[in-house]
């Protein structure tokens, strides 16, 4: 055997882009595009790089029975009319108000067995403009909530053979309310513009070539060549997809079969399909199928037809373990242009979700979110915990912001990791040793991270992210003055509070604040006696702000002891750029976050306070920061990738890596 000597060793540099085209689990490791990656968890592809996912904040808790299995939403004509409930095995509980810890049970199920609490529902308005929620529970059947009475009652029909207690799915197609009868191939539909008339039966069983029961029905708006029309799509548990077109199911001249397709076995439940922007997505063991592709002639047996093609091996691995378990859901959040495939927990492996960004059709994954059911309400994402009696809002930049941190613990930074595509670094067959890696971030803070070079197709994760320390925020006692301006749109009071960090529960501290154009004053820190917003503790003061006059706030932490302090200004009565709460007497308001407040957090030298993620805010001055933190890489190989694992408590986007490496040696 003979060897050919390579060139002399030399140092070179390169820049690798952030993998904003997302995860690729099907390309050869030696031929993967540089803007894709082998895995990305909790750091998701976006337009300019990869952004750490949003955090979550506890919204409500305290119902009895098991964890909630459904988030139920109602959106009225005004925000004041909106309602939020959760359903569990005992019934339905109202959690409209943030901070609810003793929710009212508004409906008690006759039976708490089997699928009680797994609900399908729609918002409905009749010709008289009366508003309703029509709901079918997986165990107890059909129920109706009426806005005028604010009551939930058992649904009823004025005739016919349908049993309201056996209906477990509801939808609306061409002004008709349709139901599915539990564990059957039967559907029932009502006359146009009615939700309690005489239902007619429709049996889909003759169209199910592979058998199974009727799982769900969907209204799919599509231009099939003769203008926009609404198709009725039926899905069976065995994987048959049946599409009908027309108006009146009783009239064969106006209602007929468009086609029948087989997509393979589907996961458990009736939350495995969703319509969005003229597309219907259906999840099966073969992946996430856009039905427009099939209708236009693409074969459902062709892997490239599936949106999940690039992550198919990862998705199949999860399905192999959990296909028949509760927790599968397709959820779309239009505000963020995201599609989520939520999966059930896996034994000893946690719970994984796959995330598609519509902007680039790129995939990432999230971990650490124990979701039972997810829904959109007031433009935000709400979800119920699959093991605990809690409901959360997706918000901020940290996890585990609980209503009672003394019981549940303090907030946690978000842990994330990513392995880039392998590259020969334009030196094929040459050995390389990476000497220097500089991740580049933009955003409101700098994460803590560990980074290393990996060689020759090692695809293992780093063992763990470093503890979060944070480097972008002011440190109390280190000096410096931090300024923020408020501009009121009327002569109103401005409410400010300083919540205590977890190491300040028994402390008493004076915080000096200067208001530009106003006298200086101090707030006395006394968390044992002063409270606001439910279980949060803190102090507060009222300042008068005049129409059109900016009030500048400056904080000088010099001389203050190490600790955690949050700055939370808000308007009283009217909008002042932050919130629109109201105040009764001296009772502080309940905040409604709009994501424009700063700073993100202020930390002590030995303590990182992360709870400010509740307000979803950026750094003090809105500046963009780039991190320079060189880290060498040990090892040697012909192919190189960057493996990074980190924790962050701010809005952070990874844009790329600068690397310096030596190359040479034997071919």
Compute the separation of the termini in Å: 13 Å
Uncertain regions: pLDDT < 50 for 5+ in a row?
A: 1-6, 469-633
Radius of gyration: 28 Å
Number of strands: 44
Count of alpha and pi helical runs: 3
The geometry reads as: globular
Helix content: under 10%
Structural class: mainly beta
In round numbers, the mean pLDDT is 77
Which band does the percent of strand residues land in?
35-45%
* Biggest sheet record: 5 strands, antiparallel
Question: What does this entry look like structurally?
Answer:
The structure is a single chain. The strands form eleven sheets. Strands 1, 3, 4, 34 and 44 form a five-stranded antiparallel sheet that branches. Strands 2, 32, 33, 35 and 43 form a five-stranded antiparallel sheet that branches. This protein has a four-stranded antiparallel sheet with strand order 5-31-30-29, with no helix packed on it. Residues 1-6 and 469-633 have low confidence and may be disordered. Among the domains are: 10-53 and 416-470 and 629-664; 482-615, no CATH class. It starts with 9 loop residues before the first strand and ends with a strand. Helices cover 3% and strands 41% of the residues. It has three helices and 44 strands. With 667 residues, the chain is mainly beta. The protein is globular and about 85 Å long.
Briefly say what this structure is:
The chain is mostly beta strands.
Topology:
Elements: E1 10-17, E2 37-41, E3 43-45, E4 50-52, E5 56-61, E6 70-74, E7 83-87, E8 91-94, E9 104-108, E10 119-125, E11 131-137, E12 141-146, E13 151-154, E14 167-173, E15 176-181, E16 186-189, E17 200-203, E18 214-223, E19 228-236, E20 240-246, E21 255-262, E22 273-276, E23 279-284, E24 287-290, H1 291-295, H2 312-322, E25 329-333, E26 338-342, E27 352-357, E28 362-367, E29 371-377, E30 380-385, E31 390-394, E32 398-399, H3 405-408, E33 412-420, E34 431-443, E35 448-455, E36 482-487, E37 492-499, E38 510-515, E39 521-524, E40 538-545, E41 550-555, E42 568-571, E43 640-648, E44 652-664
Antiparallel strand pairs: 1-44, 2-33, 3-4, 4-44, 5-31, 6-7, 7-8, 8-9, 10-11, 11-12, 12-13, 14-15, 15-16, 16-17, 18-19, 19-20, 20-21, 22-23, 23-24, 25-26, 26-27, 27-28, 29-30, 30-31, 32-33, 33-43, 34-44, 35-43, 36-41, 37-40, 37-42, 38-39, 38-41
């Amino acid at each position: 055997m003979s060897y050919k000597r390579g060139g002399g060793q030399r140092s070179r540099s390169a820049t690798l882009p952030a993998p904003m085209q997302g995860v690729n689990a099907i390309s050869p490791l030696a031929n993967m595009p540089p803007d894709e990656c082998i895995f990305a968890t909790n750091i998701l592809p976006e337009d300019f790089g990869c952004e750490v996912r949003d955090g979550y904040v506890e919204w409500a808790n305290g119902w009895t029975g098991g964890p909630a299995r459904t988030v139920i939403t109602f959106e009225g004509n005004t925000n004041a009319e909106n309602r939020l409930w959760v359903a569990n095995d005992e019934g339905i509980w109202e959690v409209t108000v943030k901070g609810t810890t003793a929710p009212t049970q508004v409906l008690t199920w006759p039976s708490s067995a089997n699928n009680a609490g797994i609900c399908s529902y729609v918002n409905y308005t009749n010709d008289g403009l009366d508003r309703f929620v029509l709901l079918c529970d997986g165990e107890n059947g059909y129920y109706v909530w009426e806005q005028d009475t604010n009551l939930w009652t058992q649904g009823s029909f004025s005739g016919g053979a349908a049993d309201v207690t056996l209906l477990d799915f509801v939808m609306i197609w061409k002004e008709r309310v349709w139901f599915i009868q539990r564990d059957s191939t039967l559907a029932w539909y009502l006359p146009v513009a009615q939700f309690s008339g005489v239902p007619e039966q429709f049996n889909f069983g003759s169209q199910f070539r592979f058998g199974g029961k009727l799982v769900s029905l969907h209204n799919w708006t599509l231009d099939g060549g003769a203008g926009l029309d609404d198709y009725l799509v039926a899905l069976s548990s065995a994987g048959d997809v049946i599409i009908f077109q027309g108006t009146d199911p009783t009239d064969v001249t106006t209602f007929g079969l468009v086609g029948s397709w087989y997509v393979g076995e589907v996961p458990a439940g009736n939350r495995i399909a969703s319509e969005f922007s003229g597309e219907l997505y259906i999840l099966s063991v073969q992946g996430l199928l856009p039905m427009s592709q099939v209708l236009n002639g693409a074969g459902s047996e062709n892997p490239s037809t599936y949106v999940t093609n690039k992550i198919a091996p990862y998705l199949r691995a999860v399905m192999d373990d959990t296909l028949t378990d509760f927790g599968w859901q397709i959820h779309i959040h239009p505000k963020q242009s995201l599609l989520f495939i939520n999966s059930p927990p896996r034994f000893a492996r946690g719970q994984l979700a796959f995330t598609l960004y519509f902007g680039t059709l790129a995939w990432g994954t999230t971990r650490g979110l124990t979701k039972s059911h997810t829904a959109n309400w007031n433009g935000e994402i709400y979800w119920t915990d699959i093991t605990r009696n809690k409901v959360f809002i997706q918000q901020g930049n940290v996890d585990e912001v609980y209503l009672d941190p003394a019981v549940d613990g303090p907030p946690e930074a978000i842990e994330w990791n990513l392995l880039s595509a392998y590259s020969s670094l334009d030196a094929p067959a040459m050995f390389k040793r990476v000497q220097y890696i500089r991740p580049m971030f933009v955003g409101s803070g700098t994460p803590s991270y560990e980074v290393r070079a990996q060689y020759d197709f090692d695809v293992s994760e780093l063992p763990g992210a470093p503890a979060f320390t944070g480097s972008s925020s002011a440190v109390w006692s280190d000096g410096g003055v931090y300024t923020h301006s408020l501009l009121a749109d009327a002569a109103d009071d401005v409410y400010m509070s300083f919540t205590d960090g977890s190491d300040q529960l028994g402390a008493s501290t004076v915080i000096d604040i200067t208001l530009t154009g106003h006298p200086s004053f101090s707030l006395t820190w006394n968390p044992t006696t002063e409270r606001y917003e439910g279980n949060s503790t803190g102090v507060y003061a009222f300042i008068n702000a005049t129409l059109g006059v900016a009030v500048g706030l400056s904080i000088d932490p010099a001389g203050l002891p190490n600790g955690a302090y949050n700055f939370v200004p808000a308007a009283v009565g009217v909008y002042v750029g932050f919130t629109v709460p109201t105040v009764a007497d001296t009772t502080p308001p309940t905040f409604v976050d709009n994501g424009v407040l700063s700073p993100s957090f202020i930390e002590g030298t030995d303590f990182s306070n992360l709870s400010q993620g509740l307000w979803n805010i950026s750094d003090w001055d809105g500046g963009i920061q780039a991190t320079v933190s060189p880290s060498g890489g040990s090892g040697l190989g012909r192919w190189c990738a960057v493996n990074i694992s980190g924790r962050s408590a701010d809005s952070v986007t990874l844009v790329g890596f600068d690397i310096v490496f030596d190359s040479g040696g034997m071919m």
